[in-house]
User: Fold this.
Amino acid sequence: MYLHLKPNEHFGIAVLDAIATATIPIVPRTGGPWTDIVEEGKYGLGYTNIEEIPQLISKAENTLDREKNIQEQGKIQPRKLQKKTHEGIVNGDSQ
Assistant:
């Protein structure tokens, strides 16, 4: 995650770089990073005061953990795949 602390910035190239590297940006709800880059919450998280930041960091961490779990569930385990394919060939199965 990337925490951007500068309010009222016109654009915010660092926020754009964060998104480009699949990093969740947390930006002030003012200026270009919020309206033009994060698109008011579509591509990241926003805060109006610094007291909100710890909660947003937790939210970003939960999102990252959830994505990691989804990726882990979708991975193919090569040994199981190889064994299944090998057994299918030996037994004459097409799958």
Observations:
- The longest strand covers residues 25-28.
